[in-house]
Amino acid sequence: MARPKKRLEGLVAATITPMTEHGEINISVIGQYVDYLVEEQGVTNVFVNGTTGEGLSLDISERQQVAEEWVKKGKNKLDQVVIHVGALSLKDSQKLAQHAAEIGANGIAVIAPFFLKPWNKDVLINFLKEVAAAAPTLPFYYYHIPALTGVKIRAEELLVGIQDKIPTFQGLKFSDTDLLDFGQCVDQNRQQQFTFLFGVDEQLLSALAMGATGAVGSTYNYLGKKTKQMLEAFQQNDFSSALNHQFHIQRFINFVVKLGFGVSQTKAIMSLVSGIPMGPPRLPLQKASREFTDNAKAKLKSLDFLPFADLNSGNLEACD
């Protein structure tokens, strides 16, 4: 059974794929991106080529290039680099899984295929089993995100006996608001020591109370430091402080959700906060509007969050 040298826990940044203004991947800034996450946000685990990274909008070669650069630049700096290798084609997914093992990734994750969908738990596990077998030395995680895949198979059901069929299975990235399903995943698998990574940033404290061992999210790219304060308060049983931190984070997320918040807007915010150019998203997504960016910038300042780059001057402005 594949076991990571260190359990995947705490915050995991769902990484953005930087692109040029012409829509080509821009791996030249990933080294700077790694340093920013570690030094400014205190985040040392990453989840590459997932939803935030536009993984399904990249071709196989691009996904491999991005994965290679994260592993290369993260060496001796990041604790774990998990590569999302899910694809509509089983063969593509297997190829990406094998590549992740060859480059020295610390784990792989897979979403359910979402065009020709698996119709029950057994069919889904058979698909996941074939992908995991292509990288038998790597820990394997299932990426549960039913709102995007349309695959409504409950994670609780999927986990029953899953290690018997997928020996490398280590845990779950749970990106759904169904806390009953999530809670039962934890409650019914206490002996297995699975990793339970929650994927809804604005509800993380609720998931921690139910036994989440960590979290994967886009906001940890730029709100990692603030979220770590919440984790530390929770671990110290200071629930009042933890709740205040969660509410503080929710104020920003609630604000941008009302403006229209997705991958495009995440790229704009990350460029703003970090000063690293993330570029536009790939079609069919559209670039975030200047109005959105200006409003997000004002909200970040009003909440006294992080230092970030002024998009007009290119200089860093401190807001704390």
UniProtKB/TrEMBL annotation:
Q: What class of enzyme is it?
A: lyase
- Enzyme Commission designation: 4.1.3.3
- Which residues participate directly in catalysis? Y143, K173
Location, primary (coarse class)? cytoplasm
Signal peptide positions (record): none
Q: Which residues form a coiled coil?
A: none
Please provide, in alphabetical order, the Gene Ontology terms of the cellular component aspect for this entry.
cytoplasm
Q: Keyword annotations for this protein?
A: Carbohydrate metabolism, Cytoplasm, Lyase, Schiff base
Q: Pathway involvement?
A: Amino-sugar metabolism; N-acetylneuraminate degradation
GO terms of molecular function: N-acetylneuraminate lyase activity
Instruction: State the reactions this protein catalyses.
Output: aceneuramate = aldehydo-N-acetyl-D-mannosamine + pyruvate
Mind telling me which SUPFAM superfamilies this protein's record contains? Aldolase (SSF51569)
Q: Does the keyword Manganese apply?
A: no
Subcellular localization is given as: Cytoplasm
Q: Where does pyruvate bind?
A: T52, V216
- InterPro entries from the UniProt entry: Aldolase_TIM, DapA-like
Q: How does it assemble?
A: Homotetramer.
Query: What's this protein's family per the entry?
Result: Belongs to the DapA family. NanA subfamily.
In its UniProt entry, what is this protein called?
N-acetylneuraminate lyase
Q: Which gene encodes it?
A: NPL
